Amino acid sequence: MQNYDKTDVSSVPGTAPDFRGNDGSLVSVLKTLLFFTILMITLPIGLYFTSKSFLFEASLGYSSNDSYFYAAIVAVLAVHVVLALFVYVAWNEGSRQWREGKQD
């Protein structure tokens, strides 16, 4: 008869991996992803409409057609800034977790 008391369940094929030791890092990664997802949706759209209405049409006096064009440029720049920030944060978070794992 075989002794199954000390068998690592995560090594058995067909079972889910054990994430109990990484709950803090997994939650941290998901929070970061959720934050940047919300930022990616709201910031470009918000900047598009506010820059179109308040900056280009009201302050600078551009026509409606011109303000569409320049507001789109502002929104595209916002998307690039959010993506660059996400890459920076993800890169630093990954290297920090790697350093912490290396010290253990």
TrEMBL record:
This is Vacuolar ATPase assembly integral membrane protein vma21. GO terms for cellular component: endoplasmic reticulum membrane; endoplasmic reticulum-Golgi intermediate compartment membrane; ER to Golgi transport vesicle membrane. The lineage of its organism: Eukaryota, Metazoa, Chordata, Craniata, Vertebrata. Residues 1-22 are annotated as: Disordered. InterPro entries: Vma21 (IPR019013). Keywords: Cytoplasmic vesicle, Endoplasmic reticulum, Membrane, Transmembrane, Transmembrane helix. The keyword Membrane applies. Belongs to the VMA21 family. It comes from the Eukaryota. It holds the Pfam family VMA21. Required for the assembly of the V0 complex of the vacuolar ATPase (V-ATPase) in the endoplasmic reticulum. The chain crosses the membrane at residues 29-49, 69-91. GO terms for biological process: vacuolar proton-transporting V-type ATPase complex assembly. It is a multi-pass membrane protein. It is found in: Endoplasmic reticulum membrane; Endoplasmic reticulum-Golgi intermediate compartment membrane; Cytoplasmic vesicle, COPII-coated vesicle membrane. Signal peptide: none annotated.
